[in-house]
Amino acid sequence: MKRLVAVAALLLAGCSVKPPPLLPPDRVESFCGDVRPDAAEITAILSSVSDRIEAGNPYPGDAAVRFDVTHNGGAFAHWTGGQQLYMPYTAQDLGVAGNYLDVTDVALDNQLAGTESRLLYATVETPGGAKQIVLRAYDVTNICAAHATAPDAEGT
Predict the structure, then answer these.
(1) Which of 5, 25, 56, 151 would be 77's cystine partner, CB 3.0–4.6 Å?
(2) Contacts of 86 (CB under 8 A, 6+ apart)
(3) Residue 105 is part of which domain span?
(4) Does residue 17 fall inside a structural domain?
(5) Contact predicate 98/91, CB 8 Å
(6) Residue 113: beta bridge partners?
(7) How far, in Å, CA of 35 to CA of 60, rounded?
């Protein structure tokens, strides 16, 4: 009987739905001088976010985010149809049905929040409309570096 249950569990696991792949942004606004951020690097940073909104760091407003990105070096990434990101707890907090958030825009600058993480600013779709949130990402790649190296303590 145990063997039958184990086989049934394996069959069910093999039939499970795969998560949607992370897609490169449809459009990137770069503030990296002559270097264009690689879409794969942006996607990797987005995939490293923790599944919670940074409550201690409220969204500072569009003008402040644009100032940070343009002065610290970075990029704005835009997805026309939304990038589905697996974040079940954050989706629940925002009233989104299911385990995925639709991310439409992300602002990334090279200013680190400590040595092992950075804050990023995301626009996500919710039942009440688009909402800007702050997330913590653990990929600290310098998206403005020609060969994608980790930034130093000052984010350069």
Answers:
(1) 25
(2) 19, 99, 100
(3) 28-137
(4) no
(5) yes
(6) none
(7) 27
- Strands laid side by side in the 100-109 sheet: 27-31, 74-86, 100-109, 118-126, 129-137
pLDDT tens-digit readout, 50-107: 999 998 889 999 999 999 999 989 999 999 989 999 999 999 999 999 999 999 999 9
Helical ranges in the chain per DSSP H: 2-14, 39-47, 62-72, 88-93
Q: pTM for the whole thing?
A: 0.79
**CA gap 28, 45 in Å, rounded:** 14
Total of domains in the chain: 1
